[in-house]
Amino acid sequence: MILNPFSIVMLLVASISTILGLYGSILLLKVIIAGKISPHTSEKHTGSETGTNRVISLAVIVLTLRLFSYPLFYATLQSFVKDIEGAMCIYGVTQVLPRLCSFLEIIKPLIFFFIGQWLILHFLTRQNKTTGSLTFRKLKLLLGVSIGIVAESIGELIFFLSLSAGSHTPVTCCTSKIDSPERITAILSGYLLGHQYEQPLLLFYYLSNLFLLGMIGYFLRRRRSTVRGAFRKHSVGLVFSMSLMNLFLSALAVPEVIGPRLMNLPYHHCPYCLLQYVPDSPLMIGLFILGTCGIGWAFGLTMIARDKETARNLPGWLDKLYRFSFFCLGLSLAMVSIHLVGRTL
Prior knowledge:
Elements: H1 5-33, H2 43-50, H3 52-80, H4 90-94, H5 98-128, H6 133-162, H7 175-178, H8 184-193, H9 198-225, H10 233-263, H11 271-277, H12 281-304, H13 314-344
């Protein structure tokens, strides 16, 4: 076990999350199985009869705390680089326990998204004093999120308790695998855009981001100009579909084109090195993730919370989420552009 301020905080958060997540999951599972929560149960009745108000209050605290565990996880891995023999960046640390680390890197963004989705849904339902099936859906989502947090937290505990600077085989540099011609991003980019894919990929990255920002701006302006001021379901779906396409293209462009140019290393494609060599790259990537999640959260609200009980306040929440996404995606794109222009001058 490697102890430093980052790892101590990670272990503390993981321990608290495991205990409270198990407690909340067991309690919610019991009341659901016992039939105390159903689509016909009001939020007031649910809280007074089953005692879940206490669980929900704890959930808001724990889930908010867990949101910060996502960036803290990578900050902790970065702090371990100097302690792992052969590691030049975060990639080397991930190779000490590769399967467990891969599991955490996959589950963490999913848990981050669903935590944000539940918190937004919770505040919307509290604002509307909802009853019935919407409350039931909110509590079922909380149960699923709690189970996911327990799995993630246990994985963190195993990973950080097992990681040791002196009890493993030295790892290799990231260039041996990530810069290989067989890397998945290079294969996909070459398949879609041909052998000389760098310039077309960068062009599609910009077109995709600008088109997505244009769609968000159009629907926000259209909502203000309509009498009812509501978002149509198909409009939200269109923006969400475009955000998925933008996410895919950006996931190719960052390691293949943007990262090498920002690092001034034309043949190096490691995203972990980008975080290390470009000081504000975590902010750029973080803003992009938040902006994409904001669109996903808006889509999730229309799927889960589109109900007569939320008809008055749901459009306002969608408006806030779209504005949030527009700001985050626009700022991320501007930061990337400033770096790229600076490298060419």
